Amino acid sequence: MAVKRSAILWVVLLGIIGVLVAAWVDGGEEPLRPISQPVELPEGTL
Question: Which UniProt keywords apply (predicted)?
């Protein structure tokens, strides 16, 4: 039994849409927070 080309196309399109929806739901903007920590520099570098 052969699978129709249009059926394969629909499955691929639904897969792409599913990935895009998952990325949209899960990938919202997150607030930026400062990253600061002391860093030791070798003597004589400044």
Answer: Membrane, Transmembrane, Transmembrane helix
Going by the DSSP 8-state scheme, the letter that residue 40 receives in this structure is -
Q: Return the residue matching tokens 């249009």.
A: 6
Helical H segments across the chain, by residue range: 5-26
| Spatial distance between the Cα atoms of 27 and 36, rounded to a whole number of angstroms | 25
pLDDT in tens, 29-43: 777 888 888 888 888
Question: Residues 24, 26, 27, CA angle at the centre, nearest 5°?
Answer: 65
